[in-house]
């Protein structure tokens, strides 16, 4: 299974990234210090690194350059708040495979990771990404038509409601945070303070039944 090292000292951002990757089937670990990130990046244990440049202990640009000098060939995607041209040029010339600026959208980060890994990873158990009609616990959703059947009874959903339900159905029983749902459904930047998810969850509950989506207080939502 693909292993990703997230070199990030902001705990909130690191947790957001890790949760997203784990839901996609990747093994993911965090290094919040530059020296630790360098040592683990050189260990050969990981298939990919997501690297913040502003790390304590050892700057991310130095980590990148030293790993390449030591012939570490795993893909490295720089994810940083540094947006200056000089920083981009130095990182790319130093061996970065890609460069993303913060704030970011998880969907875009995931797409770039899959591109560099050649599509490695998996969808949730029992759910093929190519599945057209999703079925879970008396729910039957066709994302193409935005129609859902609840115990055989058809209901119409808006595009956002359909996308939200699809995200929950593809991860049954798993808690999805508001930040993850924002990225998956709305492709919004990291913003766990937004209440748009709560608004749409309430609307979706009215259509499919209030007991089908559980609120995990302080964490997020999951499909029962």
Automatic annotation (TrEMBL):
Recorded GO CC terms: cytosol; protein-DNA complex
Keywords: DNA-binding, Phosphoprotein
Post-translational modification 4-aspartylphosphate, affected residues: 52
The Response regulatory domain, residue ranges: 3-117
Domain OmpR/PhoB-type: from-to ranges: 131-224
Record GO biological process: regulation of DNA-templated transcription
Known DNA-binding region: 131-224
Source organism, top-level taxon: Bacteria
SUPFAM superfamilies: C-terminal effector domain of the bipartite response regulators (SSF46894), CheY-like (SSF52172)
InterPro entries: CheY-like_superfamily (IPR011006), OmpR/PhoB-type_DNA-bd (IPR001867), Sig_transdc_resp-reg_C-effctor (IPR016032), Sig_transdc_resp-reg_receiver (IPR001789), WalR-like (IPR039420), WH-like_DNA-bd_sf (IPR036388)
Pfam families the UniProt entry points to: Response_reg, Trans_reg_C
Molecular-function annotations in GO: phosphorelay response regulator activity; transcription cis-regulatory region binding
Protein name per its UniProtKB record: Transcriptional regulatory protein PrrA
Gene label: prrA
């Amino acid at each position: 299974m693909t292993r990703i090292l997230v070199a990030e000292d902001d705990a909130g951002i690191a947790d957001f990234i890790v949760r997203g990757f784990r839901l996609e089937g990747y093994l993911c670990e965090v290094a919040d210090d530059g020296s630790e990130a360098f040592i683990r990046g050189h260990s050969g244990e990981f298939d990919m690194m997501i690297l913040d440049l502003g790390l304590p202990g050892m700057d991310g640009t130095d980590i990148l350059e030293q790993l390449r000098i030591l012939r570490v060939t795993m893909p490295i995607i720089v994810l940083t708040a540094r947006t200056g041209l000089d920083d981009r040029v130095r990182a790319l010339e130093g061996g970065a495979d890609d460069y993303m600026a913060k704030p970011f959208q998880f969907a875009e980060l995931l797409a770039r990771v899959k591109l560099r890994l050649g599509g490695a990873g998996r969808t949730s158990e029992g759910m093929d990404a190519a599945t057209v009609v999703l079925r879970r616990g008396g729910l039957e959703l066709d994302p193409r038509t935005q129609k859902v059947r609840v115990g055989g009874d058809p209901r119409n959903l808006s595009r956002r409601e359909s996308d939200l339900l699809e995200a929950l159905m593809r991860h049954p029983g798993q808690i999805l945070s508001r930040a993850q749902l924002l990225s998956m459904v709305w492709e919004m930047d990291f913003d766990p303070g937004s209440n748009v998810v709560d608004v749409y969850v309430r609307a979706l509950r009215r259509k499919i039944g209030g007991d089908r989506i559980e609120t995990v207080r302080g964490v997020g939502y999951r499909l029962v």
